[in-house]
Amino acid sequence: MTSAIADSLERFVRECVIPSESAFAAEGGVDTARSSTLTGLQDEARERGLWNLFSSAHPSAALRDLIVLPDLAELVGLSPILAQAALHALNPDALVMELLTALGTDEQRDRWLPRLTDGAIASGYCMSEPDVASSDPRSLRMEAKRSGDGFLVSGRKSWCTGASTPGCRFLVVVAVTEPEADPRRRHSLLLVERNDPGVKVVAERRVLGYSDALRGGHPDIEFQQARGQLLGAAGDGLSAAQQVLGPARMLHSMRLVGTAERALGLMTARLGARNVGGRALASSDLWIDRVGGARIDVEGIRALVRAMVTHPDRALAESIVKAHVPGAVARIVDLAIQAHGADGLSSTTILADLYAHARSLQISDGPDEVHRRVVGRRELRAR
Amino acid sequence: MTSAIADSLERFVRECVIPSESAFAAEGGVDTARSSTLTGLQDEARERGLWNLFSSAHPSAALRDLIVLPDLAELVGLSPILAQAALHALNPDALVMELLTALGTDEQRDRWLPRLTDGAIASGYCMSEPDVASSDPRSLRMEAKRSGDGFLVSGRKSWCTGASTPGCRFLVVVAVTEPEADPRRRHSLLLVERNDPGVKVVAERRVLGYSDALRGGHPDIEFQQARGQLLGAAGDGLSAAQQVLGPARMLHSMRLVGTAERALGLMTARLGARNVGGRALASSDLWIDRVGGARIDVEGIRALVRAMVTHPDRALAESIVKAHVPGAVARIVDLAIQAHGADGLSSTTILADLYAHARSLQISDGPDEVHRRVVGRRELRAR
Amino acid sequence: MTSAIADSLERFVRECVIPSESAFAAEGGVDTARSSTLTGLQDEARERGLWNLFSSAHPSAALRDLIVLPDLAELVGLSPILAQAALHALNPDALVMELLTALGTDEQRDRWLPRLTDGAIASGYCMSEPDVASSDPRSLRMEAKRSGDGFLVSGRKSWCTGASTPGCRFLVVVAVTEPEADPRRRHSLLLVERNDPGVKVVAERRVLGYSDALRGGHPDIEFQQARGQLLGAAGDGLSAAQQVLGPARMLHSMRLVGTAERALGLMTARLGARNVGGRALASSDLWIDRVGGARIDVEGIRALVRAMVTHPDRALAESIVKAHVPGAVARIVDLAIQAHGADGLSSTTILADLYAHARSLQISDGPDEVHRRVVGRRELRAR
Amino acid sequence: MTSAIADSLERFVRECVIPSESAFAAEGGVDTARSSTLTGLQDEARERGLWNLFSSAHPSAALRDLIVLPDLAELVGLSPILAQAALHALNPDALVMELLTALGTDEQRDRWLPRLTDGAIASGYCMSEPDVASSDPRSLRMEAKRSGDGFLVSGRKSWCTGASTPGCRFLVVVAVTEPEADPRRRHSLLLVERNDPGVKVVAERRVLGYSDALRGGHPDIEFQQARGQLLGAAGDGLSAAQQVLGPARMLHSMRLVGTAERALGLMTARLGARNVGGRALASSDLWIDRVGGARIDVEGIRALVRAMVTHPDRALAESIVKAHVPGAVARIVDLAIQAHGADGLSSTTILADLYAHARSLQISDGPDEVHRRVVGRRELRAR
Lengths: 383, 383, 383, 383
Known about the structure:
The structure is a homotetramer.
Chain A: H1 2-26, H2 36-47, H3 69-77, H4 80-87, H5 93-103, H6 106-118, E1 122-126, E2 143-147, E3 150-157, E4 168-176, E5 187-193, E6 199-203, E7 220-231, H7 237-273, E8 275-276, E9 279-280, H8 285-309, H9 314-340, H10 342-345, H11 351-360, H12 368-382
Parallel strand pairs in A: 1-4
Antiparallel strand pairs in A: 2-3, 3-7, 4-5, 5-7, 6-7, 8-9
Family (chains A, B, C, D): Belongs to the acyl-CoA dehydrogenase family.
Keywords (chains A, B, C, D): FAD, Flavoprotein, Oxidoreductase
Domain Acyl-CoA oxidase/dehydrogenase middle (chains A, B, C, D): 125-213
């Protein structure tokens, strides 16, 4: 059955998503919160049984099959943002669906999950804080005080992805609820309604030039006595988040293999089409060498990702992959940009979007340095 | 006197321009065509005698003094876009002012130059064409036919910087007017009024996520029998453009030295301010090593630029500098981004803007590959 | 059974070969033609059933089992030269044994193979020519003229590996015997006795400082009417050589994975043992980061090599691996050198030997550029 | 006058030294302690007034003229080892001559200096110790005990350059003589006769494959109650050594600019001479690009070295240059090796020697990491 899904997904991505990219870009691309192109693709995905494909809500539960997952993820990575949006696999909603499913009470699930799963509403995720290195989540310090059967949340969160999307109805917030506990057991996840009067969006920011309105931007939020409800057990916040973020990191990198293939495909097409001084660039030794190098790099990235999927030490394997893949893919995309000249920089091609996506992943979910440090310390201890 | 200008410019950049960057960013930054922050800075620049500083219109004619120029340009490069905009030194207007001054008839100059110099109107520059490698300007093929005492221009130009700015009144267009001549003598510069009915903007594009509305975007234009007037002699187009673009390339790189200094300064400030695990990042061996490497790179770039200023072979020196500096500076800015974590990617800092600026210069005015090729061929011939 | 061999090989390499490295180095290492340390190791290998392990002469025929081969080869790569020498797996003998086995007549095999297999005699291999790019074997031009039932060989060969070893009894020589045929069918392999009066060694050379006397150096040979005998069919020379060299390339890279592991292991040991300013280097962020990066690189190289083993297009997979692995491993070894300071450069450690070995493989058996070109052209054609 | 010296030196290097390289290599090159080619060059240098050119013993005292020095040093760097040996400018003798001149008593100078200056005898230099990071000289711990009017030296030194040369008559040894003083004031320089019965050479080592017999190798020495005499004041050892080593570092880098020029020149010559597939490599886009990049790098290195000569902070400038130049030059030489194929690795060309020379300088006189750290810390403090 999984191979039927792979076929179906491949047709969807190649026949529907990629051909829609320029219409999507003309509507504003990732900087627009509403795109009829996207809505059409989402309807198509539902019809083809691909809606929520990478979520536990999908009947095939593709996410759990480690053998077929890299193939599926690569297909999505060919057009990573638009395909994920079309499949309803974009964060924060994808992440929040998993958290609600795994940790929510019946009441919480009943209230939010069906509409979130369906795409009728959206969610936001609030973890980072200003002046705290996100690479060390234990140092997150915003507190929530118990009040009645819930909590009152006060303080500032930054990079609250999703919070500015029009359909956003609630936020998942990481806050210190057990200040006296061991640092790994201090934080809880809280559900906060988006329209709580204590929730105030105070700063929007662009990321490498993009507003990312499509996924609700990345604003700061000032919480002022906002009411929150526990999601999962008190003190479990960091470990619950980690349990969902770990596989998400691996999935990011699997998709990026497809992104690198896309960039390489665009590069070879361009080199074949463009003449300089009466000679196709594709017959230039320099570009043949670079294409050869890029193909070798893509095969190396793919092989590493697939080898690490079955590595016995999951955390180490995730760090190896996360430290290597986004940067390597960003360099391939950058080379494809250079092969396109000015068009590569511009919204005429999808390359600048792909670059921003890959480059951002060298920082989000733990910067390269943090993951290399994890790997290096493990190696030195193993000595 | 030049040192008085340098002092004045330094105060202006450090006391006025840099402190205005966040207000400018809040107004939309390079993506806004109208910024009151910018208008205020421009007024201030006029008052301080710095308006048009790098243009031949400025009494000090700083542009011609090769000794002081690197110092001045570095100061501008500390905040390259906003400072250039404040000084009225941004292309295409800076370029077009020089072309009009050097090549315009009295009538042409009287008509456009005073208002352009004053900033009351703006200009556009149309050189690139779709499907033609800009690195080989002789292959530009849009034609203009003689008609009366002027020309009728028909065809498509791409990357028409400036053409979408609200104040744009005229365009400088490179077109083939002497199709039978030697390839180096076929093109002429033509002046075309922006509101000519045959001038139609047909495509806008973003560059690495930015619309660049501040300098009028980079749209395509479809010319349909638009009326053009010779600027300079028929057949002189490419050599005239080269004469102005050559020094401009050098100037770009001189400014980028300041841009690299700015990024390095932001990086060290951030590393000093940010703690991870109770220890300032500034005391991490890894970041000390990277800062050391960045300082060495900045000194290397600066030394190269200054050494090449007096190189006897101007064209070779321009290619050496243009092939090396933008990429080297983009890497330093990229490192500063990484040192800032997510803030480095975001519009909270100026780093993403600086990156897009430096990275674009690896392609505009001749991609790195073209300039390396010039240098490599010269070397192999010199053998 | 293969796993028993792997265990046996691992014990041999770790308990016998590696502990013998310094005694071998004290005898002159790769620069000595006679080493009692090596003789002892060879006796030990025979006793343990590991002699000729990677040759078709070995009962297990390990070379043909693609699943276990990478594991075995990695073990050898931990001490690549000494282990290969101990196992009788060093070129040119390893290569010549395969050629004789595959192509030799009964008479040729009877005459040379038993003694060669046993290590009683040695062989040389003569392919390269001065002023001919080895990357294009079809351009090799030394001719051999038919004479009686054999050939008379005249001309100069360079890089005749093995020819100066004391036990060398015969040479395999690539020569044009069918000058009128298609360029791919012009060359034959010829057997020439080493003591033929027409065989004259005319130049010895060192390679990155080493004489490589252990494997008979890399002299030039001037052939003057030396008598040669066909090995295999006339005109089959290049394809026969290719059939043996292709898998050899893959095997080189498999071994280099072990070489990279060795370098990484030496690096972490040194960092743990060395204090600077009262602090172990192993606790320096900079070196932790580099160790992390090296581990990631090793995993990437290993994953690529193993993925390419089962790639359907063998020639492409060989080029991907050959273009990537030696350079990547040379960089890891170079980093380990730097971690050791002056000791890393010196014969106190094995690192300089490992570097020379890996670096040389970026050129021998086709330089990186040639293999990247193969990959790039395939990619551009596949478009 | 300096320009006359530059002319004379240029003729000597180009007309005498470079053409002698292959004869020198045939005699064993840097691995031979006695070369008649070298003796001939030395005689020629004396005759032309170039003997001891870079020493304070030379009438022109070229070493002190910072303007002409880079030009002279570049010329020497074209053939760095042979030219230095021919001019009597090779360490340790060059270093020891300066130390004796600056610090020796009349008696010490009378005894050693004339013969050392003349080349009749040679010297050795003993600073490094096993298990002590040379990058932190204050941690050197071999002690010398006062005894009569001298000292008794016991302990082990490593990397005693010069100690194994046949003419070596005395050693300069760094030892702790004031164990109670501040760490910067504990060490003294001592003169020890080479034939003292307490001087025992215990280990020879090769460096990247070379024995460096030409300059007396780099053995370990075990001192057993060897008699030493103060050179300079007690406690001044480290500062005296630093005063001579600092400029030497700068001089090393100046020479390396010439080494890079040499490698680039060999590379372009080879590319012009070698055909692959009927086309000169010099017309390959890939190699044109690499040659262009190498030329740009050479100009960048040269400009940095020359800019740093006049930098007000000498120690910082030395670290900037020392951290950057050897590695950058090693990469250029490595590229030239690749352009030569197997010949580049071999003693057929001088490239492998040049590589070993440049690569070693990334470690000797302070590894790159130490100098980058100096620069990085300065930058972070300057914030």
